[in-house]
Amino acid sequence: MFRGSMVALVTPMREDGSVDYDALRRLVEFHIEQGTDAIVSVGTTGESATLSMEEHVEVIRRTVDLVRGRIPVIAGTGSNSTAEAIELTREAMEAGADACLLVTPYYNKPTQEGLYRHFRAVAEAVPIPQILYNVPGRTACDLLPETVERLSHISNIVGIKEATGSIERGREIMARCGDRLDVYSGDDATAAELMLAGAKGDISVTANVAPAAMHALCEAALAGDAERARELDARLAPLHKALFVESNPIPVKWAVHELGLIPPGIRLPLTWLSEAHHETVREAMREAGVL
Hints:
- The protein is an alpha/beta fold.
- The protein has one domain: Aldolase class I (TIM Barrel), CATH 3.20.20.
- About 45% of the residues lie in helices and about 15% in strands.
- It has helices at about 20-35, 55-65, 80-95, 110-125, 135-140, 145-150, 165-175, 190-195, 210-220, 225-240, 250-260, 280-285; strands at about 5-10, 40, 75, 100-105, 130-135, 155-160, 180-185, 200-205.
- It has an 8-stranded parallel β-barrel with strand order 1-2-3-4-5-6-7-8, surrounded by 5 helices.
- Strand 6 (about 155-160), helix 7 (about 165-175) and strand 7 form a beta-alpha-beta unit.
- The protein is globular, with a radius of gyration of 18 Å.
- The two termini are about 35 Å apart.
- The mean pLDDT is about 100.
- Pathway: Amino-acid biosynthesis; L-lysine biosynthesis via DAP pathway; (S)-tetrahydrodipicolinate from L-aspartate: step 3/4.
């Protein structure tokens, strides 16, 4: 249903932490001009954890309005409260999002049966297309392939963002689910190989900084051009790594600010990138051809 380079968009903020909607407009136009294939609004990289419910919905609504149907908008609406996830997903659908991205419930560590019932409840309550999001490194919760297979039989669960970085995990999900469910990479460092193995795209942090290059990489991988995809990926590899020298989205917001696109704002408990890492990220940006 969705393909290519899907940017996990940062939420621009002023130094006082307030959301900067003028900068959001600039970001949307930048990504459309650079060939980004879809925008993921208010995911992990968009600081969903520290936005209020009202801000969360407003950023999604503004993003949809700014995009004006030119590319898909996928709204991050996950929560560790099933009722809250349903509410956010309904609000995103009413705001005009094309799909929703739902992270596994964090902190409360549900069982696989609990995960199945959580995602089924959201899907049954809100008829928008939904993409599962598995990132156990941040959530202390792993959505296993057999549970994904069960969920793939629910008609409006259309994909999964697999952020374990495991190609074998991605292959297993594809083998189990077939055409019922699309797999997307959630790990830039392994995205090219996962797409060459059959995934349909990459929900990308790196695309915030190098959108044209990530679009070209995804295009090559989806076309089965392994040589071109790996060549582009090799150039981007230092950037994939540098954008995680501190917790995401700390480095990527600094990098997008370095490009002159957003002010230097981030919300506590996250802090601005430590000066010791500035040159590391700058050098990776130079190698990627964006500075």
